[in-house]
Amino acid sequence: MKKIQVGFLLSYDYEKLKLSIPPVYNLADAIFLAMDEEQRTWSGERFKIDPDFYEWLKGFDKDNKITIYRDNFYVPELSAIKNDTRERHMLSLKMGIGNWLVQVDSDEIFINFSNFVNELRVHDQYLEYPEKNPIQIAGFLINIYKYLDDGILYVDEPTKVLLATNYPNYKVARKTKERIIYTNNVLLHECLSRTEKELKFKLDNWGHNVDVNQEFFEKWRKADKNNYQTIKNVFYLEPHKWKKLGFFESKNLDKIKDLIKERPSLTLTKLYLFGKNFGQWFKFLKVIKGNKKRDFESYF
After folding, report:
1. Are the C-beta atoms of 168 and 214 separated by less than 8 Å?
2. Which end of the chain is more exposed for a tag (fewer CB within 10 A), N or C?
3. Maximum separation of any 2 CA atoms in the chain, in Å
């Protein structure tokens, strides 16, 4: 118990796992790859996995940490987002309550997983009675918007991502709606950095497929390094949540990690994190007090 268990979803974008697994491999106690037993997406579309991927996985997994967890993750009667939530819950149960349950999407690349593990260890007390003290541990994503010939367009503001929990009572995807502890951990998110065909398939088959806004593709197609500063409100769901774009003059991931440190707009200050965490503490302090009051009243 009290292990660092890391889970990924193995689906149509399996090739991206070749970038997202290596940063967590050494410090994870175990890694689980959840794959639908009939290779269906949450919307029921079929996908195929090249046998070469399994050869790569076998060659990479020198310490025998990786388990492929096959199960029925597609229920036709459920929406895509409900199938999403269900699979994540089943994956976390497989990883084992009493451990840190870390879920990383295949297109999310940790920059410093060692720092994240250290943050988790500070909060190990929450693993003692997780059902009584459920929490979520969050980091931040640098969202890659589009690959260009000589660089990358990215969203010029980090966005929250829920990465770990001690108790997987998920309500929507990775959200348990319990208290969040924000940490200074950044991941690169290759959410939109695909060909147009790949991107359309992703948006048609992921959990929020019915919510994609109609203007998204027009903006995404025309964005380049010459006009990115004029393109605003680019999020694929609620456009205003991604207000503007930036440009990395490199596609090398190691170089990009250094560039992130040089960009003030991508820096998470101690004051910012303190404010976020104080707000969560105060919000859930009220909930705890309310629960104690109800428990007391139940005796009478």
Report:
1. no
2. C
3. 70
SS3 label, residue 34: strand
Domain limits, the chain: 4-193+265-289
Residues 6 or more apart in contact with residue 238 via CB below 8 angstroms: 213
8 A C-beta contact, residue 38 and residue 1: no
User: Using CB atoms within 10 A of its CB, is residue 240 exposed (0-12), middle (13-18) or buried (19+)?
Assistant: exposed
CA atoms within 13 A on the CB side of 208: 10
3-state SS, residue 59: helix
Instruction: Read off the amino acid at residue 28.
Output: A
φ, ψ dihedrals at 225, nearest 5°: -70, -15
Q: Which CATH number fits domain 4-193+265-289: 3.40.50, 3.90.550, 3.30.10, 2.60.40?
A: 3.90.550
Interatomic CA distance for residues 51 and 47, integer angstroms:
13
Per-residue pLDDT of the chain (300 residues), as tens digits, is: 799 999 999 999 899 999 999 999 999 999 999 999 999 999 999 999 999 999 999 999 999 999 999 999 999 999 999 999 999 999 999 999 999 999 999 999 999 999 999 999 999 999 999 999 999 999 999 999 998 999 999 999 999 999 999 999 999 999 999 999 999 999 999 877 777 787 877 777 655 556 677 778 889 989 999 999 999 999 888 889 999 999 999 988 888 888 988 898 898 999 999 999 999 999 998 665 555 433 323 322
Q: Who contacts 110 (Cβ-Cβ below 8 Å, separation ≥6)?
A: 20, 23, 24, 104, 116, 185, 187
